[in-house]
Amino acid sequence: MIFESYLNNSSMISILNNQPQEGILIGDDFTMRNTSWVNSNLINRTVQIRTSLNNGHIYSNLLENSSIISISSKISLSQITISETSPLFSQFLSIKQITQSSKFRCNITNLDAINNDLSSSNIILIFSSLQTNSIQIYLINFSIKHNNSNVLVQIVLIIVLEKFQYILNNVTISRILNVDESIVQISPSQQSFSFLYSIIDITNLQFIENTLIQSTLFDLYHAQLQNLITRLTQICIIFHMLKTFSTLIQVVQQAPQCVLYPYYIKNLLYENNALTNTSNSLMIIRSDTLMMNNFTLNNLNFQELWINHYDIQFNGELNQDSLNDFVFEALQVKNNGGGAGQFLVSNITCINCSFSNILVIDCFILDIITKSDGNINFMNIKVN
């Protein structure tokens, strides 16, 4: 247990392995509580050391310009809880300048982040400009609740890769306030970044009762991404507010001379949300081919949201038409764009999609612009 410690420009553990074979650092059942660290780390720069940590409890800590774990080699984390912690320009996990030239893997399972102030910090920051053939990032069973948040997961890579995999599975993000940032951001350099083969797979996401102001849930910008396969599956987004140039999912893919694989969106539910004063949509996707299956949008800007989130009380006899007039006049629901999505694509397919109870003005449900002639295929669409 690390208890009531103060560190300044220090590290608890720092290992440098100069041997050609890879070493391993294993830690189980560690607790970090009531500490105050400045420019310090628990684990720092394990070159040629694979790190494996299990059952970690981190709570009631103050961090400034610090990283609890700062490494440059493979890492595996499981059963981690972070709570009541206030990091300032800090990270839980910082991976900088990946040293493996052949294959790097980051595997994190069962991480809970609860009641933290992350407004100027990240949970995970990955940055590298060193040559690596393959990067695999697996984030499985995440729960992020009651946090003021910055970019929770940020990946910045300035390298040429043969293979990039980013797997996000079984993630719950609830009751967070995010201002002017993205929750998950993958942003390659536009100057020297190219993937030869890439997979981004996001499965079973629940995004519940959050407030985004000039923010994005997913910001995936692929300036020169080649052979990319993106899958968004089983995503449930309930009771949250988006205000002022916000959007939930933003994907930009520009690679005119490369093979472009489709974006897959399956079983996506938007329900009981507010979207006000924005020129954006819930989704902004620019790519070659988009395939959507079982996309449902219900109750956008309806009465229960104003009662719960804006602290507005209505007369019980107020009907929906009168409520609409009040919302348009007092709250200025002026959304200039596609309510559900803005798509710039060559081919779009939408199967088994439903849109109901949507309250917007000067807006479309889907705003679609096709490249060249374009192909638009709608099958079994329901609008109420």
UniProtKB/TrEMBL annotation:
Name under which the protein is recorded: Transmembrane protein
Annotated organism of origin: Paramecium tetraurelia
Lineage, highest ranks first: Eukaryota, Sar, Alveolata, Ciliophora, Intramacronucleata
